[in-house]
Write a structure and sequence with these properties.
alpha/beta, disordered C terminus, 6-stranded antiparallel beta sheet
Length: 605
């Protein structure tokens, strides 16, 4: 929707999409495309001056005083237009007139190599979640380090998710270009301490420049600040006090926030921003640069007395410093087996984590509780420490290895997680899951009626009914003999069918007609809408499979509200998309009157 509002053609897709729906490029390219659109849609359609109008202008310009005044006005006007068009506020200004295209803005600080590999992958994740991602490119110019930049990505150009997109055509060079090796750091510690401090000052000035030039609506909605590696160090140390509540949260990826080779002094190892801002620290326990074992930080630490420096114990994460500074809300996720690029092992989990944190940053210490209905996610998380006190809460969790390749599409992995849980369910009534899923109790005694019956060798099973306190696919069952099929609907047994076939309607909703959806908000309702002022309705643009609407859809397949469907009324409000949207934001429980799109109605037939 943001791409459409800015009038540019999508040129990049996310991991699980075949069709391009995002746009990636540089601000000056976006500005140039906007100018082309203005010339095409506005200037080209203006009527040319008549002969009489031209004559009147020529005659007026013969007066020296009038000519001087007009030329002066022209110069001032052109200068104002140029300055506005060159600013971030000017480029993103059109979004201020659209209340729903984007969820918010993210200021993303790339690592020491620029916008490459996992830096772009993070940007794609965030953009697909509805955020405008603004990344100051520290490599695109300047005397201290530089990389030649490539041209605009075209709409028909291949943009693979797991490869470098080729945003640069040369390697980095300059005084601040580096590739850290522990031997070099220990050999010349003062050189590297000065280098890292200068890099921080350069990158923090980029952050101040961006935050001071956002549009009013972006500032009002709030901004997340996020960094990877060198960018994460900058975000961790950045003093954001002057921006107040404008900073909604900070995300620090692949940096340990402790006294190590990357922080020249003990003071530099502290969080530099407002401790009231919710903070998420993501790092792998096998990080080659900041991990606790055999990393550059550990190697430099072990050379104390020979040029090395660092904390007495390298923990490999920022939890110790969070506790020391009494961060009001903090979550540290240590990913088992993950290296400096955590997406190689935990790509889809990072999507779950980012979505949960950004939906409600100040509830980040409750994410473990929030994920309890999801048996797979819960099986992968271990709470190592919870620190509460001084009106705050800080949690350290360990995240286990994933059971699926990181290249798996996110939507497919969600389904595969559920099927893995089902496969691990024992046949003897034992109330524990085994195998790849961490052992845990369902709390109610699991009694499959028909056991697990593979259909045509596929991964699907006829569950018949699960009696007692059963839970399936993240849906909690009660203790009163509820029966559920594999779509989460209540009722009797279902006949075998292949996993890919659409569910059959189980209620009386008219095919293609209106139906009602009742939801209760957790941190949100779990879906995003687009305003359709022509039909005076809301169009469903995206549904979170694990949110309240996603759970409703699993339990009520014939009354499932999916992407492309229409919301006609929200409680008592209808006929005005703005008021309907405000009602959604205001309420805790809601009843929606909706209508299936034609494609969904055809499936239900």
């Amino acid at each position: 929707m943001t791409v459409r509002a800015l009038g540019v053609r999508p040129n990049i897709e996310d991991k699980e999409h075949n069709e391009k729906h995002l746009w990636l490029g540089r601000v000056w390219q976006l500005r140039s495309l906007g100018l082309q659109r203005y010339r095409r849609n506005v200037l080209a359609k203006q009527a040319p001056l008549t002969w009489q109008e031209r004559s009147a202008i020529d005659q007026a310009m013969q007066d020296p005083r009038k000519r001087a005044v007009v030329l002066r006005m022209q110069k001032v006007w052109r200068g104002a237009v140029l300055r506005k068009s060159a600013s971030l506020s000017g480029v993103f200004g059109p979004l201020d007139f659209h209340m729903s295209p984007y969820a918010g803005a993210v200021l993303f600080m790339h690592g020491s190599g620029g916008m490459t590999y996992n830096n772009v992958r993070y940007a794609r994740k965030l953009a697909s979640m509805g955020y405008v991602v603004i990344a100051p490119d520290s490599m695109a110019g300047g005397a201290y380090r530089h990389r030649e930049v490539a041209g605009l990505i075209t709409s028909n150009q291949k943009t693979p998710y797991w490869d470098d997109l080729g945003l640069y055509t040369s390697a980095s060079e300059g005084e601040y270009a580096y590739n850290t090796k522990s031997e070099a750091v220990v050999e010349n510690p003062e050189k590297y301490k000065k280098l890292y401090e200068n890099v921080f000052r350069l990158r923090s000035s980029e952050m101040h420049w961006i935050l001071g030039r956002l549009t009013p609506q972006m500032q009002v909605r709030g901004v997340f600040i996020m960094g990877q590696s060198e960018g994460a160090m900058t975000v961790a140390r950045f003093d954001d006090h002057k921006y107040g509540a404008m900073i909604r949260g900070r995300i620090i990826s692949a940096f340990s926030v402790e006294y190590c080779y990357f922080t020249p002094t003990r003071e530099a190892s502290k969080y530099g921003g407002n401790t009231e801002v919710a903070t998420l620290n993501i790092i792998g326990d096998a990080d080659q640069y900041f991990g606790p074992n055999d990393s550059v930080a550990k190697q430099v630490h072990d050379k104390k007395g020979y040029g090395g420096w660092g904390a007495d114990q390298i923990t490999g994460n920022g939890f110790k410093q969070m506790k020391a500074q009494r961060m009001r809300r903090g979550l540290v996720c240590v990913l088992e087996g993950a290296k400096h690029d955590a997406s190689e092992t935990h790509d889809n989990f990072l999507r779950d984590l980012l979505r949960a944190f950004m939906a409600s940053p100040h509830d980040c210490h409750r994410i473990v509780d929030q994920w309890k209905p999801d048996k797979y996610l819960s099986s992968k998380i271990k709470v190592v420490e919870l620190d509460e006190g001084a009106g705050g809460a800080r949690m350290l969790i360990q995240v286990g290895k994933m059971d699926f390749a990181s290249t798996t599409h996110y939507g497919k992995e969600i389904m595969d997680r559920q099927m893995l849980i089902v496969k691990q369910r024992p046949k003897n009534g034992n109330s524990h899951f085994h195998g790849a899923v961490k052992r845990m109790s369902t709390g109610g005694g699991l009694s499959p009626v028909n056991g697990l019956s593979p259909v045509n060798g596929a991964a699907s099973h006829e569950l018949g009914g699960l009696k007692g306190g059963a839970e399936y696919g993240g849906l909690g069952g009660g203790g009163g003999g509820i029966t559920m099929d594999r779509y989460g609907t209540t009722g009797g047994t279902v006949s075998p069918r292949s996993f890919g076939s659409p569910p059959r309607p189980t209620s009386g909703a008219a095919v293609g007609g209106e139906f009602r959806v009742s939801l209760q908000k957790t941190s949100n309702y779990g879906f995003r809408v687009q305003h359709d002022y022509g039909q005076r309705v809301l169009l469903v643009e995206w549904v979170d499979p694990s949110g309240p609407l996603g759970i409703w859809n699993m339990r009520n397949p014939s009354e499932a509200l999916r992407e492309g469907d229409t919301v006609i009324a929200v409680n008592h409000v209808r006929g005005n998309p703005d008021l309907m949207f405000e009602e959604l934001k205001r309420t805790v429980t809601v009843e929606l009157l909706a209508r299936h799109s034609q494609s969904h109605a055809w499936q239900l037939c």
